[in-house]
Amino acid sequence: MTLDLFPPAEEHPLQFERRLQSQGYKVVAGIDEAGRGPLAGPVLAAAVVLPKHFELPGLTDSKKLSPAARERLFPLIRQQALAVGIGLASPAEIDQINILQATLQAMLRAVSRLALNPDYLLIDGITPLPHSLPQQTLKKGDSRSLSIAAASVIAKVVRDRLMVHYDRVFPDYGFAGHKGYGSAAHRQAIVRFGPCPIHRTTFRGVKEHLSVRTKSLI
User: Fold this and answer.
1) How many C-beta atoms surround the C-beta of residue 132 within 10 A?
2) Domains in the chain, CATH or no CATH each
3) From the centroid of its chain, how far is CA 126?
4) How far, in Å, CA of 83 to CA of 31, rounded?
5) Strand-strand pairing, 120-124 and 135-138
6) Average pLDDT for runs of 10 along the chain of length 218
7) Looking at residue 211, what is its pLDDT?
8) Under a CB-based contact definition with an 8 Å cutoff, are residues 45 and 107 in contact?
9) Helix axes 210-217, 184-193, angle to 10 degrees
10) How far apart are CA 67 and CA 87, in angstroms?
11) What is the 3-state secondary structure (H, E, C) of the chain?
12) How far is CA 101 from CA 32, 36, 106, 107, 132, in A?
């Protein structure tokens, strides 16, 4: 179920949550993801339930924040949020069911791992979740809703940390720097070494070079 509740103009960053609370919804979860576009690594989603009078100066869409700002905000969100859930879909799952469906699955997992049971979902983007809960999709929601903005920071920081870990496991690709996105250096590494186990083999920029990896294993 989706509802077209809100006008886009003159929005307060908590107006979505407050409007829903005034309608009787008690636990509103904001949901966002990180990592739909990279050539490697999982897609990771977060769901965040904020308290009614939440304030955190500087919190906005994670893409507008520096890595240092995200790292500063991350523990503050964790401390103040009523609940945080994290879910991911692996590169293999992305290849199997496509990136959109894998993103939806990661979001569903994030919702399922909340310590509180939400009664309404605010979702960044235009695609609703296959879930029975009432929900609203919001274009550019990570700039319009603090719950979604908080989820975007959580998802981005956790995914970036995972990619730093993968950089130690697969040091040829520079994952700590580009986090799996298709930078020139990353694409050159794929050409030279072939894809590694966390590359998305159905993505352009990877699938053309699968034979390089095969030859290197012979």
Assistant:
1) 7
2) 15-167 (3.30.420.10), 172-217 (no CATH)
3) 14
4) 12
5) parallel
6) 46 84 95 98 98 88 91 96 98 98 98 97 96 95 93 98 98 98 97 97 96 53
7) 81
8) yes
9) 40
10) 21
11) CECCCCCCCCCCCCHHHHHHHHCCCCCEEEEEEECCCCCECCEEEEEEECCCCCCCCCCCCHHHCCHHHHHHHHHHHHHHCCEEEEEEECHHHHHHHCHHHHHHHHHHHHHHCCCCCCCEEEEECCCCCCCCCCEEEECCHHHCCHHHHHHHHHHHHHHHHHHHHHHHHCCCCCHHHHCCCCCHHHHHHHHHHCCCCCECCCCCCCHHHHHHHHHHHC
12) 14, 11, 9, 10, 17
**Cα–Cα distance measured from residue 113 to residue 27, given in angstroms and rounded to the nearest whole number:** 14
Question: Which residue type, as a one-letter code, is found at position 96?
Answer: Q
CA atoms within 13 A on the CB side of 84: 18
Quick one: tokens of 122? 């605010």
What residues contact 97, with CB distance under 8 A and at least 6 apart?
105
Residue type, 97: I
pLDDT value at residue 15: 87
Q: What tokens does 134 get?
A: 């009432």
Cβ neighbours of residue 188 closer than 8 Å, sequence gap 6 or more: none
Nearest to 50 by CA among 8, 91, 12, 83: 83
Tokens (6 digits) for 150: 């908080």
The whole-angstrom separation of Cα 166 and Cα 211 is 22
Q: What pLDDT score was predicted for residue 166?
A: 98
